[in-house]
Amino acid sequence: MRRLVEKLDEKAEKKSKGLETASFWGLFIFVAIPLPGTGGWTGALVASFLEMDIKKASIIIFLGILAAGLITSTFTYLIPSLF
Q: In terms of C-beta density within 10 A (0-12 exposed, 13-18 middle, 19 or more buried), how is residue 57 classed?
């Protein structure tokens, strides 16, 4: 029984690295989408629930906020000037 548990633990450990990377990208996309309910504050709450490293999560949230600002600025200034 012990061997089975150790083998499953090893497998889970290998998969967790990919999950961590995916969770950071998911957090970035969640914060970067300029919709009500998404943003820095909610992203910080999600990062807290997922128990992410605070330094890495802060950088990802900051980059997501910048991306959301760029998206919003593009729609606000660039698109109307085309018409």
A: buried
Element holding 55 (H helix, E strand): helix 54-73
CB 34 within 8 A of CB 71: yes
* d(C-alpha 71, C-alpha 24), whole Å: 20
Q: Is the pLDDT of residue 5 over 90?
A: no
Its pTM surpasses 0.70:
yes
Closest CA to 45 of 5, 37, 18, 17: 37
DSSP state of 38: -
CA 5 – CA 20 distance, rounded (Å): 22
CA 2 from centre of chain:
36
